Amino acid sequence: MSDTTAAPDMLSWSCPAPLRDRPRVVMGHGGGGALSAELIEQVVLPGLGAAAPAALTDSAVVELDGARLAFSTDSFVVRPLFFPGGSIGDLAVNGTVNDLAMSGARAAFLSCGLILEEGVEIETVGRVAEALGAAARTAGVRVVTGDTKVVEAGHGDGVYISTSGIGLVPAGVDLRPERVVPGDVVLVSGAVGVHGVAILSKRENLAFEAEVESDCAPLGGLVEAMLAVTPDLHVLRDPTRGGLAASLNEIAVASGCGVVVRERAVPVPPAVAGACAMLGLDPMYVANEGKLVAFVPREHADAVLAAMRAHPLGAGAAVIGEAVAEHPGMVVARTGLGGTRVVDLPMGEQLPRIC
């Protein structure tokens, strides 16, 4: 080899297929964890090429004729279709409305696509549609367009729903993880793990001492109350798939900051804690559908927390940690015994088909 031969630039190499030896899609690829990230980053994005999005967020903020619009799309494949505290119809609206709210936008319009399995009862479809309409009215959005398809029996699971939403982002609002800096205070709007446990109890016919109902709810009003204190919130996330742990990890990686969480400060209801202990689950990895996590400048944290607690959907809000300069891109939890553990990105999903 000639001395003038350039060494290969290995840092610029990319792999067109998942690094893990999985030639086929598995359920974990849809769980919002490490497998999901690999599928998107190593298969989907290379396939899109120049058409790929600039940032991998739940909603994109785009400009149109001087207006800043938030645009989001989501799909819902929950099983069972109806569960304590909600249904796939509620999820389809609130999931998309909340993605828009995490950009600071007030949701205005939704589209709705229904994929129905041959043989599903018409009465079931009607119940889903009624729940969807009620949720849209509660959230203050209009369903302005949609589509319906039917697949052969055995090729679906009753009803799947895909929704997209558009909302307007107020001037001065800039919510993105890159704005997080060491010293930011981490707030959560209430008890975590409720939705996932509610789904599991219905799916597996489990009975707990107290019934656990999903926290599925539209978060737009809560976000507006927080922004009324200051538009200078740094980032918001609704911790759905992968739970609080996944959201914190995504923010840590994107911001380049470390995150320290006080484990005992994370609000976990006794029924959820008991169910997770019995089933070997970690509440921080269990999905939520009506909660948010916020990174707020320290000087505004007390006022924002007070505004959250004054809102019905933030009555249980709590300070759970802070962003730090140490261990960039990593989330750690301080345990009640004084130790420290790494809260890593989940590989897949502890409870599949929950949203």
Q: Which tags fit this structure?
A:
355 residues, alpha+beta, 60s Ribosomal Protein L30, Chain: A, Phosphoribosyl-aminoimidazole Synthetase, Chain A, domain 2, 2 domains, seven-stranded mixed beta sheet, 8 helices, 14 strands, 29% helix, PurM-like_N
**CATH fold assignment of the largest domain:** Phosphoribosyl-aminoimidazole Synthetase, Chain A, domain 2
- Low-confidence regions: 1-5, 8-19
According to DSSP, the number of beta strands is: 14
Estimate the strand proportion: 15-25%
Termini separation comes to 56 Å
CATH superfamily of the largest domain: PurM-like C-terminal domain
Mean pLDDT over the residues: 88
Order of helices and strands: HEEEEHEHEEEHHEHEHEHEEE
Organism: Streptomyces fungicidicus
Family: Belongs to the HypE family.
Domain PurM-like N-terminal: 58-169
Pfam family, one: AIRS_C
List the helices and strands and how they pair.
Layout: H1 34-48, E1 59-64, E2 67-76, E3 82-83, E4 86-87, H2 88-101, E5 106-117, H3 122-139, E6 142-151, E7 159-168, E8 185-188, H4 194-203, H5 220-229, E9 235-237, H6 243-255, E10 258-262, H7 270-279, E11 293-296, H8 298-309, E12 318-324, E13 331-334, E14 340-342
Parallel strand pairs: 5-6, 10-13
Antiparallel strand pairs: 1-2, 2-7, 3-4, 5-7, 8-11, 8-12, 9-11, 10-12, 13-14
Can you characterise this structure?
- By secondary structure, the chain is an alpha+beta fold.
- The chain folds into 2 domains: 56-168, PurM-like, N-terminal domain (60s Ribosomal Protein L30, Chain: A), CATH 3.30.1330; 177-342, Alpha-Beta Complex (Phosphoribosyl-aminoimidazole Synthetase, Chain A, domain 2).
- It contains 8 helices and 14 strands.
- It has helices at residues 34-48, 88-101, 122-139, 194-203, 220-229, 243-255, 270-279, 298-309; strands at residues 59-64, 67-76, 82-83, 86-87, 106-117, 142-151, 159-168, 185-188, 235-237, 258-262, 293-296, 318-324, 331-334, 340-342.
- The strands form 3 sheets. A 7-stranded mixed beta sheet has the order 9-11-8-12-10-13-14. A 5-stranded mixed beta sheet has the order 1-2-7-5-6, covered by helices on one side.
- Helix 3 (122-139) links the parallel strand 5 and strand 6.
- The protein is globular.
- 44% of the residues are buried.
- InterPro entries: HypE (IPR011854), PurM-like_C_dom (IPR010918), PurM-like_C_sf (IPR036676), PurM-like_N (IPR016188), PurM-like_N_sf (IPR036921).
- This is Hydrogenase expression/formation protein HypE.
- Keywords: Plasmid.
